[in-house]
Task: inverse folding
């Protein structure tokens, strides 16, 4: 049975400054409070989810730097990570933390990602001074895996064109983060994510990964069978972002996002995380209203769990 989760990448719509200050943008406020974390976790649990995927350092949030590169983690971000795990425990949720976001390089001109792309020493400093203390703050018993960067293909030729770096560069960053994180928690699993057609390149570049994370956006809620992904059969695969290609009109919109729930179980994915709880494409409205889309998702998860628990087929 898949682990069903929901994406909670940034709170309060504050990409890059929800949990801690952003040194690259000192004028930005820190928008999320401990109460916001608590409310989001409780909403996820009430909808029937068992896990949340959270982002910690998107666009360099909470990463302290100097002329040499990363030198530490903002105390406020470390405190936020502790709050996330406290509230996840209160709601009985598994946490799937992600550090960086590859999309911020080309789209936002992220200076930290630029340095990580071009400077091997900077990648090692990020692993030692950022990834290690953040891993230390995690509760390994409540962590699905640690994802060093969301969609690293956004920094390779597939996403960045001629400007992109080699997959070997991305593999160096991920392996360095893996080593630093496992020095804190030896059993901690490491994952990496990519869109469907790019997953084979990711798999070849990073054979050391514990989990491959498929991202899928379509309007029929379909997932490819594991045998069609183009990765070795012994690779463990989750679906870490499952969303609609078209934007729902509102939380009551008719769409097929609940189909992902069925297809993840049908094809044997180890986990399925829908995109997303709040904000644009969210299952919950800005004022906290739970609409028909969320109700359909919750009903689908309940039915899949019931059928699998009773040994009944999913189809028919």
Result:
């Amino acid at each position: 049975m898949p682990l069903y989760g929901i994406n909670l990448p940034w709170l309060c719509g504050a990409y890059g400054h929800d949990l801690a200050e952003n040194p690259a943008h000192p004028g930005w406020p820190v928008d999320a409070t401990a109460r916001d974390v608590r409310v989001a976790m409780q909403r996820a649990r009430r909808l029937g989810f068992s896990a949340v995927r959270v982002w910690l350092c998107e666009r360099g949030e909470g990463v302290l730097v100097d002329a040499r590169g990363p030198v530490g983690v903002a105390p406020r971000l470390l405190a936020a990570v502790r709050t996330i795990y406290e509230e996840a425990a209160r709601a009985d949720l598994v946490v799937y933390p992600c550090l960086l976001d590859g999309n911020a390089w080309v789209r936002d001109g992220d200076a930290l990602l630029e340095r990580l792309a071009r400077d091997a020493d900077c990648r090692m400093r990020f692993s030692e001074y950022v990834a290690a203390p953040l891993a230390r703050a995690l509760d390994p018993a409540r962590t699905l895996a640690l994802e060093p960067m969301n969609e690293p293909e956004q920094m390779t030729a597939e996403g960045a064109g001629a400007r992109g770096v080699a997959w070997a560069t991305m593999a160096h960053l991920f392996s360095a983060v893996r080593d630093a994180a496992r020095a804190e928690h030896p059993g901690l699993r490491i994952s990496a994510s990519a869109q469907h057609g790019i997953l084979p390149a990711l798999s070849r570049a990073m054979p050391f990964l514990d989990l491959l994370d498929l991202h899928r956006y379509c309007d029929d809620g379909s997932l490819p069978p594991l045998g069609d992904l183009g990765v070795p059969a012994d690779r463990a695969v989750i679906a870490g972002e499952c969303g609609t290609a078209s934007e729902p009109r509102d939380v009551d919109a008719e769409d097929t996002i609940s189909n992902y729930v069925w297809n993840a179980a049908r094809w044997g994915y180890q986990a399925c995380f829908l995109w997303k709880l709040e904000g644009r494409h969210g299952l919950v409205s800005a004022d906290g209203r739970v609409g028909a889309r969320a109700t359909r998702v919750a009903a689908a998860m309940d039915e899949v769990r019931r059928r699998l628990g009773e040994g009944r087929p999913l189809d028919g």
